[in-house]
Amino acid sequence: MQTTIRSAITFQGVGLHSGRPARLTIRPASAEHGIWFKRTDIRLGDTLVPARWDAVEITPLCTRIVNRAGAQVSTIEHVMAALAGCGVHNALVEIDGPEVPILDGSAAPFVRGILSRGVRALTAPVRAIEVLEPVEVTTAAGWARLSPARPGQGLTMQFHIDFPDAAIGTQDKGLNLANGAFVRELCDSRTFCRQSDVDTMQANGLALGGTYENAVVVDGDQVLSPGGLRHADEAVRHKMLDALGDLYTAGAPILGHYEGHKAGHAITNMLLQELFAKPGAFRLRACDDITAAQLPGVGVAREEIPAVA
Predict the structure, then answer these.
(1) At which positions is Zn(2+) bound (predicted)?
(2) Above 90 in pLDDT, residue 126?
């Protein structure tokens, strides 16, 4: 059955790019509601913004959604990944500004908060988007592909990155996202960047809320953030975290295999656009017990959050 969070949970911090204080509250919602954001600081006009692929405004550094009235919310990918990874299908996310708080740079604080409240079943069946035919998007930066799910599996992911800095280098990881794998394997991996990119972004009025504590900053073979890495391959794990959050803007869990090669937010959104532009490439499928058991978030427990986070 579809789910929602049992009771509201609030998070406070600063926006990664804006540097502005931000307060975000995840509230329960009814069946068929989906995931919506509400700008509580806007007094007039439409304040509700759907967390949906066709409301995404293409940006290189984060996922930003905007409604027809111009209300927008940026950097939604980590909280979206947490909702997907904890199996929450319906929620109202209230926020008092234009950017989600970055917290520690991962999805772990959101996951911990959601699981502390718990998830409850609603009175409607959960439906998933089943990929029937491969779709692919290629750009100069990288590529991404969605293919039909492997037999007996729900959502699986394979990701490859390649950076010149030796502290990151080339990394590959594959994962079946069933049985709480997101919570155990990905949720604590932090956003990362190169020191040279930080300097450029801040010179252009971005990353104003970034610190060595809420991002992994590397310079050549050095990790500048205190405490170093949480995982040797933390960078590729975080890219997979981002991809899960971006895929959840499809409006339902996906049954399929996602492959990303140096892919980012824009490429994943373009991939969803390509999928939904081809009606024969997917179908909306009501999940039986066997299929539902393969969805991210089923069977997760708070104790599975990595202790390092």
Answers:
(1) 78, 238, 242
(2) yes
Residue 197's pLDDT band, with cuts at 50, 70 and 90, is confident
More confident residue, 207 or 309: 207
Q: Catalytic one among 17, 89, 160, 265?
A: 265
Residue 46 labelled as part of a binding site: no
Q: What is the Cα Rg of the chain in Å?
A: 18
Residues 218 and 168: beta-carbon distance below 8 Å: yes
Range of the domain at 99: 3-304
Banded pLDDT at 307 (limits 50, 70, 90): low
CATH number of the structural domain spanning residue 231: 3.30.1700.10
Total number of domains in the chain: 1
**Residue 190 neighbours by CB under 8 Å, 6+ apart:** 104, 105, 106, 214, 215, 216, 230, 234, 238
- Catalytic residue list contains 231: no
242 is known to lie in a ligand binding site: yes
On whether residue 24 sits in a domain, the answer given is yes
User: How high is the pLDDT of residue 304?
Assistant: 66
17 labeled part of a ligand binding site: no
Domain-located, residue 216: yes
Its pTM stands at: 0.94
Which SS3 state, helix, strand or coil, does residue 191 take? coil
